[in-house]
Amino acid sequence: MGGGEAVGNWNSMSSNKKILLGIGGGHYVPRHMDIILKGGVWVGHLLSGYSLPMEEPIESKGEKNSNNIGGTWKHAIKVAYDATVEGFPGGEVIAHIDHKSFKGWQKKAIVEYLGEQNIKIGKPGDFY
Question: Contact at 8 Å (CB) between 94 and 75?
Answer without folding.
Answer: no
